[in-house]
Specification:
- The chain is of the alpha/beta class.
- The chain has a seven-stranded mixed β-sheet with strand order 5-4-6-7-11-10-16, sandwiched between helices. Strands 20-21-19-22-23-24-25 form a seven-stranded mixed β-sheet. Strands 32-29-36-27-28-33 form a six-stranded antiparallel β-sheet, covered by helices on one side.
- It contains 37 helices and 41 strands.
Length: about 1100
């Protein structure tokens, strides 16, 4: 068959009708098996890995798997097959050079980074390096003192001196460098008697707010301080050459080769001129001779320049220490360092310069030694400004004027001391955080910021003009998770195609989301940045529509494919978010719906479901795909079903949706700013199934071993060393009830003596109480369940379930296991497996199903059933105690706002708490676990606590007014606020007005801390006390009423004197109280003859920290 419309051949009409006239039987291969290989002759262009052997039998299935994102299409590649035109990743080529040239490879790759996955495979298969023997690969851990092993080997007395000339190589992410500093320092000092040493460093670090980031600062700083060589590569096209040159450069000085480890090193793309191991060997040996014959009188910079010239001569390349792009008479030049930064500078600056902008860019390839003459030579004589785009650690460093980027100081020194210009150009430092991921549009925006000139955005880069671009979104537990790799491999099997694939993972959204960027072009693709204008976008999971801006990245007139099972046209506005509906209509985007439920057989078969999605994508994105490529797809996806059966199903499941014109007027119910790209925080899908630890009952003897042989068993005797938070032991100093004993609410004040615990806290913070279960209830459960209280068991820590504690059954039930908590549905489902009585098994299982939802709700909300209750009710379901530990969650600490200021009471901390109690459907009085525990503590009792930060903070200005509204125990943090302001007033400081609004039911019973408030009012600390006792009069009065009655005071304190408002307590008064504040804002604006949007003003006040809520 030719390259005609394959879809029509199989009976699928272009108009997406549901008609299907006939079946065309797919020709089968004459061979018994079909093997798809990655390394192909140039005529075939490369395809998928040698992973899938597919028998002809319809009952046998092939499983497509991905080994690593550092391998092309995720598939392993034999060392001998890396040559000529082939699909690679940058990291694969780095590993090829490391393995081919090294004696040993010291790898500090974290488990999921896979910086060494290929070299470990080659070493296991005993593939030989250019020296004639397999390279040894030594995986090591990144920790304090890391690098000592490699250093010890290089300088060992037993080292084979015949190998002294052979390079030793290190593979590591940049986050490991800080731990390798000591070893690198010693190596640099003793380098004259060492083997050549090169470190291939993937610029990768992890930050809590941005996830995985390409961090270069550590490498730049270490190379400068320790005298190391530092060279960077910009993309997979350069990775092999620069890795090879860095290894040659290590013959002169210890060298770091750094490259982006988050994106560019993991992109699958086709490189035409990949050197085979034979070619690598020839280049290395020839240029090594040049290195050995260099003039000894030259300094390091001179030697590196001559070595680079010899390398270029041998390869026919034109690499330079500093490479210039842009206008010949540029007035502003940007200096950049980094892989993505370099490629964007080439593309964006070249485009802007071609359009007439007098700008240029200098790309720093060799940073150390910093060759000033070469740098100055690249700068045009016409320049007036040199702008360094310098990476710094974080946003704080960006805004801190005292922090300079590392690159800036070198550029400033070189330009300032040069006599090249009559008037020295100005040098500026435009900083960006390591977390900033550049795209063409954001790079243009950065240039705009630097030049203060308007630049058209988004920019249309020539490199992307003939490139077809696609985005595929899915969850990482989807049956179609590998679809992008499969489709990419199929497209790559066409020798006329150049295919690009990159995947990014965010494991914090929906339990794990993956975005795949797929590009296809007749020319080479060098685009190390996310797709911004896709020809087609596919969303494989409906829930992602509310998490990502799926339509935003579709180009005008592009195509959007949504997988929506059981889709009905009349439900479109419920299932498709408003932002997407409006965007689709406004930008003429074609919308397609894939409803796999119309073909039930394909929903129950994961392989078939994936094939259906892949075919749907190819149908929309590549309607002219060749028939033979679909044959390969069918083979890869395991067959059954046959390809024609899938295409038949596709004709029923895939349709174009007619977009109503009314969608153009769609308004968001709750506007949200959704991300277009993921915040990459992992290189692999989230591991949702973790192996459960074996929690066996034990004896006191095994615990004694840990105490006697502390070193062997790594025993640590400290206060709760397992906890993820710092804990303290403090003692009860006072415990008194604030409400009458006859009143139905027990609100009490409890104060603790800090002693020598070391606990410190700030105003507004919360105290975490690590409360115990009720001892009597624990004893009752132990007896009823038939347990031995003194048996030992390993149980997860209540604060970190990955940490195990050895405790008695009794103590684990008192302090670890939430046995009296509310069981979720999954507990009933899991317990059903243990039931031996069929009726009980059936009832337990039903409680976890939709049919049992009402019953489950009643048990949870009305009967308030606990885990212990369920085990008592279903006696045939009797897991062993270790099994029970795995079924029930750990106790959680409970946090309460602190009602004291440590500056006033330095050795005490106070809380105000209400005991939570209720009567269940059986007439039993039930209590909240933590509040009852605290209410019964005697003076002197020890309690384990921790401190939690809070949003409740005093203004930075002492004279800024405070407007505080507290309901019930919500007054606790305001007691601390007022205590602190009273202390400041006593010290002679000016304090602002304090407006305190408090609410409760009755003054006589619940005027909490009333005497204190009255005293502070008399002393002039509190300016206004607005007490609302809702049930002391016929009509109910709430705090919002008191605020409205004193609106002029609120206007003065909050708006005119720029005070801060705080609300603490339940959520229900928030809308009413906020309305009062809006009224105050509107009234003040009206008095001044201004127009103000009160809602937007509240939002601004939130951002400024002057509208603070702590509600529950």
């Amino acid at each position: 068959m030719g390259s005609g419309n394959v879809w029509s051949l199989f009976g699928v009409e272009e108009e997406f009708t549901n008609s299907y006239s006939h079946k065309f039987r797919l020709p089968r291969s004459p061979r018994d098996t079909v093997r798809m290989q990655l390394k192909q002759p140039e005529s075939s262009g490369g395809a998928l890995a040698d992973q899938v052997t597919m028998p002809e039998s319809k009952t046998s299935r092939a499983e497509f798997t991905k080994q690593s994102s550092t391998l092309p299409f995720g598939q392993p590649v034999p060392l001998s097959s890396i040559s000529g035109p082939t699909y690679v990743t940058g990291q694969l080529l780095v590993q090829q050079i490391a393995y081919a040239l090294s004696d040993k490879i010291f790898s500090y790759s974290p488990e999921t980074f896979d910086l060494d996955v290929a070299v470990k495979d080659w070493a296991q298969n005993e593939e030989k390096n250019i020296h004639g023997y397999p390279t040894a690969v030594l995986p090591l851990q990144t920790r304090s003192g890391a690098g000592a092993f490699a250093l010890g080997y290089i300088f060992s007395k037993d080292f084979d001196l015949s190998k002294r000339h052979i390079p030793q190589t290190l593979l590591a992410p940049s986050l490991s460098l800080r731990h390798l500093r000591t070893a690198l320092d010693q190596l640099a000092l003793l380098y004259g008697v060492a083997s050549p040493f090169v470190a291939h460093v993937a610029a990768t670090d992890y930050t809590s707010d941005a996830g995985l980031v390409a961090e270069y600062g550590t490498a730049l700083q270490l190379s400068e301080e320790l005298g190391l060589g530092l060279i960077s590569s910009g993309s997979a096209y350069e990775a092999q050459h620069i890795s090879l040159f860095a290894t040659l450069m290590s013959k002169l000085l210890p060298t770091i080769h750094i490259y982006d480890g988050v994106r560019t090193s993991r992109e699958t793309l086709r490189v035409i001129d990949v050197l085979s191991q034979v070619g690598v060997s020839e280049i290395f040996k020839k240029v090594s001779k040049t290195a050995e014959g260099l003039n000894k009188r030259l300094d390091s910079a001179g030697k590196v320049l001559e070595l680079l010239q010899a390398f270029n001569d041998e390869l026919g390349t034109d690499y330079e220490p500093f490479e210039y792009v842009g206008h010949d008479a540029a007035e502003t030049v940007y200096v950049v360092f980094g892989s993505i930064e370099a490629q964007l500078a080439r593309q964006v600056v070249s485009k802007l310069a071609a359009d007439g902008a007098k700008i240029g860019a200098v790309i720093v390839r060799i940073y150390r030694p910093f060759i000033e003459e070469a740098f100055l030579k690249t700068l045009p004589a016409s320049i007036r400004n040199v702008t360094v785009l310098g990476q710094v650690a974080n946003e704080s460093a960006v805004s801190d004027a005292s922090v300079q980027s590392i690159l800036y100081s070198d550029v400033l020194t070189a330009v300032s001391f040069s006599s090249k210009w009559a008037s020295t150009p100005a040098v500026s430092d435009v900083k960006y955080p390591a977390s900033h991921a550049f795209t063409p549009s954001s790079f243009v925006a950065t240039i705009t910021q630097a030049t203060s000139k308007t630049v058209v955005s988004p920019i249309q880069l020539p490199q992307l003009e003939s490139v077809e671009q696609y985005i595929l979104w899915d969850t990482d537990d989807s049956v179609a998770l590998f679809a992008p790799s499969v489709v990419g491999g199929i497209l790559a099997s066409d020798s006329t195609n150049n295919v690009y694939l990159n995947e990014s993972h965010d494991n914090l959204v929906q339990g794990g989301v993956v975005r795949s960027d797929l590009r296809s072009s007749k020319k080479s693709i060098d685009a190390p940045y996310p797709v911004e204008e896709a020809d087609a976008v596919l969303v494989g999971e409906e829930k992602l529509l509310k998490e990502v801006a799926a339509s935003t990245s579709v180009k005008d007139g592009g195509k959007l494919i949504l997988k929506l099972p059981n889709f009905k046209d009349e439900e479109s506005e419920k299932r498709i978010p408003a932002t997407i509906r409006r965007d689709v209509q406004a930008r003429n985007i074609s919308l397609y719906i894939l409803d796999s439920a119309l073909s039930p057989a394909f929903e129950s078969d994961s392989n078939a479901a994936r094939l259906l999605l892949e075919l749907a994508f190819l149908k929309i994105a590549k309607p002219d795909i060749k028939h033979e490529h679909l044959e390969k797809l069918a083979v890869l996806e395991a067959n059954p079903p046959t390809l024609e059966e899938c295409i038949d199903a596709l004709s029923k499941s895939l349709k174009q949706f007619e977009v109503p014109k009314s969608w153009a007027e769609t308004v968001d119910d709750v506007p949200r700013s959704l991300p277009q790209v993921l915040k990459t925080n992992s290189f692999v899908p989230f591991e949702k199934q973790e192996a459960e630890p074996d929690l066996q009952l034990s004896s006191w003897e095994s615990a004694a071993k840990g105490l006697v042989f502390k070193e062997a068993y790594a025993t640590d005797i400290t206060l709760r060393p397992d906890l993820t938070v710092q804990t303290y032991t403090i003692h009860v100093k006072e415990n008194r009830r604030l409400t009458p004993a006859t009143y139905d609410r027990n609100i009490f004040h409890i104060e603790f003596d800090l002693g020598n615990s070391g606990l410190t806290y700030k105003i507004g913070e919360a105290l975490g109480i690590h409360a115990d279960n009720d001892l009597d209830l624990v004893r009752e459960f132990i007896e009823s369940y038939g347990l031995n209280a003194d048996d030992l068991v390993q149980v997860p820590s209540r604060e970190d379930t990955s940490v195990l504690e050895t405790r008695t059954v009794y103590h684990s039930l008192v302090q670890n296991i939430d046995i009296f908590g509310k069981p979720p549905k999954r507990f009933y489902e899991s317990l059903a497996e243990f039931a031996t009585d069929e009726l009980e098994k059936k009832k337990l299982a039903s409680l976890g199903t939709p049919e049992g939802a009402e019953e489950f709700k009643r048990r949870t909300e009305v009967d308030t059933i606990t885990f212990a209750d369920v085990l008592e009710e279903f006696k045939s379901a009797h897991p062993s105690f270790p099994e029970l530990v795995n079924l029930i969650g750990p106790l959680k600490r409970r946090e309460y706002s602190i009602a004291s200021a440590q500056a006033v009471t330095p050795n005490a901390v106070a809380l105000m708490i209400v005991v939570v109690d209720w009567v269940d459907s059986k007439g039993r009085t039930r209590y909240g676990q933590a509040t009852r525990y605290l209410s019964r503590l005697p003076v002197g009792a020890a309690v384990t606590v921790s401190v939690k930060p809070s949003v409740m903070k005093l203004p930075t200005r002492d004279d800024a007014p405070l407007i505080m509204a507290g309901l019930g125990t919500g007054l606790a943090p305001f007691r601390a606020f007022v205590q602190y302001r009273a202390m400041q007033k006593a010290q002679g400081k000016d304090i602002g007005a304090i407006l305190l609004y408090l609410g409760s039911r009755h003054q006589r019973e619940e005027y909490l801390y009333g005497e204190e408030w009255e005293a502070y009012l008399d002393a002039g600390v509190i300016t206004l006390l607005g007490a609302a006792f809702s049930r002391d009069q016929p009509q109910k009065i709430y705090i919002q009423d008191r605020m409205r009655q004193t609106l002029s005071d609120v206007i003065k304190a909050y708006i005119q004197e720029e005070g801060s408002f705080y609300l603490c307590g339940p959520t229900w008064p928030v809308p009413d109280v906020t309305d009062v504040l809006k009224e105050a804002i509107a009234a003040e604006a009206k008095m001044g003859g201004k127009k103000v949007d009160a809602t937007k003003e509240i939002d601004r006040l939130k951002e400024d920290g002057r509208y603070v809520l702590e509600v529950y």
